[in-house]
Amino acid sequence: MINILVDKIRKTNAPIVVGLDPMLDYIPGYLLDSVFDALGETPEGAAEAIWQYNKGIIDAVYDLIPAVKPQIAMYEQFGIAGMRAFQKTVEYCRKKGLVVIGDIKRGDIGSTSAAYATGHLGKVKIGKKEYYGFHEDFATVNPYLGSDGVRPFMDVCKEEKTGLFILVKTSNPSSGEFQDRMVDGRPLYELVGEKVAEWGSELMGDEYSYIGAVVGATYPEMGKTLRKIMPKTFILVPGYGAQGGKGADLVHFFNQDGLGAIVNSSRGIIAAYQSKEYASFGEYNYADASRKAVEDMIADISQALQNR
Hints:
It is a single chain. This protein is α/β, with parallel strands linked by helices. It has a single domain, classed as Alpha-Beta Barrel (TIM Barrel). The chain is built from 12 helices and 12 strands. The strands form 3 sheets. Strands 1-2-3-6-7-10-11-12 form an 8-stranded parallel beta barrel, surrounded by 7 helices. It has a two-stranded antiparallel sheet with strand order 4-5. Helix 3 packs parallel to helix 5. The longest helix has 22 residues, at 286-307. The model has no long low-confidence stretch (mean pLDDT 95).
């Protein structure tokens, strides 16, 4: 799958991923009112509104981008109805030819880790038949439990040619409470990065590994160090836009070939119509505002890479 992702990035010239992390207060009032009139202010109504909102954005941007990243928690909060909306979103994105990065941040061991991997990246066997669960192309994984938590995912990735993005240095302000701790004279995130590169060497694609890393845009100097530690690792970079990251901050995440990183923006794209910059679109044209935000993000990153 990493080969497909790289190919799509080259074809679109857009090393970006749209985070489909919907919240009810992002959804235009007219859309919410319409759905709630039909289904009530219920989990089912909320899930249907999220699905319709997602579909509008996907239809508006799918030709510009290589990938999307739905964050499962935003769907789980609505229970079974929300999980159905998550699955419908994943299926629709795949039909549109998009690579789907399931932002699930799982981290467990043994059979539990294997079950997570099977449900999101592989097939479950029932009797004589096998079935896909959510069928994402990549999943995010927390490595805190060590190899016992990661290798079951790697086993499924090897069989299915799917991939992982493993948390190394996250974009949140308190990430340093653990990730920056010094271990044998080095910050912990560097040691995790080395381990990710080691795991990745076992599952190589044509140019990059199937095992990627998550490194926040809000820590560009750390990204520069980790890029050297993980030269064959694709880096998923959250924190662009709403969290403060800009194209000029991101150049060190990329290799000289212009590849090696894919930058995520969630709220800055899917709720673009609520920002001052794109307010002129209005809520009825929320999807058009999202498309313009994608175009602007592509231009920002492209210019930064050209000027480095």
